[in-house]
Amino acid sequence: MAFHAGTAAAFEPGRPVAAVTDNATLRALEDGGFGFGRGFGGPGTASNDTLNRDNPAYRHIVTTISDDVRQLRREIEASGRRLLEITDDNVGRVFELAWLASPAARFRLVGLVTRFDRRDFLAEDLRDASCGELRLIYRLAYRFERAGRTYASRMPFSINVVFDLPRPAGTACPDMVSRFVPPEAMGDPRARAAWLAAGPLAASGVRPKQIEINAQVVRFPSGLETTFGGQAAYVMRIFGVAPGEGAPVLFDKALENTPDMARLGADAALRAELVAFLAARGAAIDQGVFTIPDRFLATKAISYSTYGSARLANKPFTELFGPAGDAFSAMSFDGLGLVRTPQALMERLDTASCQGCHQSNATAGFHVIGEDDPAISPLNRVLIGVSPHFHAEQPRRRAYAEAMIAGREPNRFRPLPAAPPAAWTADQPPAYRAASLGLACLPAEARRHFGAAWTCAAGSACTSLASNSAVGIELGQCLTTERAAEFSGQACLAGRITTASAQPWRDRFAVTGQLNSRATAINFTAHTCRPPVGGAPAGLAYRKCHDQDRHFQGFRPGAEPPNEICGFAGGKAFDICVASNDFAACLGNSIVRGMRATCGGERFCREDFMCQALPSDLPEIGKVAGLGYCSPTYFLFQMRLDGHPDPRRRG
Predict the structure, then answer these.
(1) Which of 43, 195, 239, 598 lies at a CB distance of 3.0 to 4.6 Å from 250, suitable for a disulfide?
(2) Average pLDDT rounded to a whole number, residues 503-517
(3) How is residue 126 annotated by DSSP?
């Protein structure tokens, strides 16, 4: 089945709600007053132009992000790379800022997430007053009519509105967490929304504690990045929220555990102070529960994909202290459960930063994407609306909440973001499941740096796809080990990243070897390796769909699905459609059937790919209910900033 955190799994009687992502419940919550504008003291369903005109808090976001985009654009263009908002040229693309003030656009609710475990990050004098956080996640979306056609899509721009869950007067946190336990099964989304609004959400108050931004602002197509398979840059910011007259007041806030690279790089004394601070907190860092003081931190970060887990730009501590972590060579790692070497310490710190976390086991730089509205094109629909990391986190977060309710000490350890799901008990290390095909793993060379790790599922081995001498710990991907087990969609190329210091958009990837899929021409039976110039990072094992594939004849009720499925592929017509900036008019006629990796339920896609839904009108689609196919993330228009209509021209 598809991952629906908001249906049966989330609203299980007797168990606390960890996350809600089902579209029907979230739409009912929006209708009930929990739209985006509520966090700014305005109408919940206000469009972006209304908020930009009437609300100074929202205007602060627009002004700040606009300045960030313009600054990054100047830096990139100064290096000789062109950027345009709307173009059919083979050049870089930059986010069209007019969407932030468009009457056709607004931020739609795509997720509700409880984070009771976040109280661990508070200072001791504040911890007793809080029971954690509640997060409402919104994504930029538009909808309008032109010439009798509906244009509707979401875009890769998310805003996380974070509320404190204050400890109720005269009670303890178990009472607060218990408010999030459904008293009975609720099948009706309106009933679920009403229960959330009357109980759990009422506990969070109206004014948020902070607002977090993650927005794709630059994208280079694969026609430019012929070996990377494309690139994208994401701006990340946090705004604190203070009371104001009529509307809250926003102010820049330090990004959690994300160092200010420019300031630390220029100030040796401050850098030495940071080393001393970190070296004295080895046990907390090993647990994954630590907070670096604001004086060391940035207020803005930019993350980069593709190959995000192997890019130095997403590893700020490695960039500061080197891949060997020499500044921590004298630090003792005795007694630590996870971190055993300075290199492991660098990885632990890097993945605790904003850019490191959002490019580790993520989906196109995000962890919550959400389900699609019915109005979205069937060829632009996501099947799994969360990242592998978010999915893996759910058992841990729920076990933490249940321990709080029972009055037990919760397990406070946090795994690396690349880790698969695990079984959790209060006083034992997590018992990891084996990582599925295509998911992240630690090669043998990397495993020796850690005290606890995980393995790949039977029939697969941890294989390095992207080496980078500027990065210390190198992650791999679980790939099949036998030629007979090859399947469409798996990675087929390995390579080496060369880092461009201070200009990550100039990083380069060189293919160094082919791993599988050695057919020399596209055919119906044997797999060929399609190059990344077509938009598939690490290449793409591929064969054509034959007639049996088109009718899903290999899929049987109750049986484990095959690893490949007849989905959809691009081609020259798709590239022409992309260049038209009018995908609603041409997408249906610009793609062809082609074999892809199967996804759905707990089967996720590899890095730089995501699970796309199959159209409901395909022949014998009932055989593959709940399943989809893995597409390169930027094949979905809702995950790319370009290819959308001009927001300045709607009539």
Answers:
(1) 239
(2) 97
(3) H
